[in-house]
Amino acid sequence: MINLETPRKFRPFVKQAHQVAQEFLRANSRKYDLAEHAYPQELDLLASLVDGMADSGQGQGAGAAGVRRKDDDAGSGKIRNGTNMASVLSVIEMCWADVGLLLSMPRQGLGNSAIASVANDEQLERFKGTWAAMAITEPSFGSDSAAITTTAVKDGDAYVLNGEKIFVTSGERADSVVVWATLDRSLGRAAIKSFLVPKSLPGIRVERLEHKLGIRSSDTAVIVLDNCRVPAENLLGNPEIAQGFAGAMATFDNTRPLVAGMAVGCARAALEDTRRLLEEAGVVIDYDRPAQAQSYAAATFIAMEADWEAALLLTLEAAWLADNRRPNSMQASMAKAKAGRVGNEITLRCVELAGTLGYSEHELVEKWSRDSKILDIFEGTQQIQQLIVARRLLDLTSSELR
Q: How does DSSP assign 331-342, residue by residue?
């Protein structure tokens, strides 16, 4: 039996997250979609509330923050605090309201997930309170993180970084950037490390902001590093090359379920509004009758709900595994692949079912169809996720299955 109920310990938190999403994000969704690149001032108060909850211990994960794993917990089977699950459930509620505004929340950037995933204890304390964007993609590659050309050369007590990063979410608004760079290009992926680069340092600049199809309230920047000297202690995690790429890639085991949760939340919003519009139009959705015996609109809606529930379950499984200190790399990619794809399909099909209302700005359905597209692209495209899953299932390396 499949149980889709939210665990009891999370219900008050999820209810609170939904109320916040409705009052802060949904209420301003259209406003900042139309005012691209304008900073959402309302989020400052929301960020203060989230910070206060975290400091008091009332918050159980919010925004795009990740969770660290400790080796001594591995295989214990103990659920420490459920923070991965709480973060995913929070993200679902927030993206039920607005994906772009969630990505604009101070101190909840994807770079913060990287810090939480690979930073050591001293770095976690030192970087506490920073708002970190994450810079991986470059003009010469998209999802193949091993193709990074940005360099980091050791010079005394610092690393000198040079390169260009594109499609950096919150690249302008964040106060620091987690930059992925290579210590030695001849060593391939083993030499790739991530660095916390404060934007106050000389040599890092925002070159331009992108105009986008969706998530317009979120700033997406091009960032240039020109002989930027970064303190050596800002290299996240272990500085040894032998433990390079695998540690950096561990970030995605935490962030991909979060992106899947974003897609699940956005698709749920589209489903709920489409159900309302169909009911207002007199369409009856009957779960006690075979779908093929109902109208096209009702049958299509039932099929979309089934796909959505599958994406939700995969997302929750990936988060549960992380909270239980179990490997979740394959499940994280499965969740991201499924949720990203069906999120796109559901929101576009909802536009179709809603007719002219779905294509107009009278409803948010058209906006959700635009916002959902990025969720199948960033943090690894659909094709990359399927490749990762295939490698895990077939027990093949990246060189054996490309």
A: HHHHHHHHHHHH
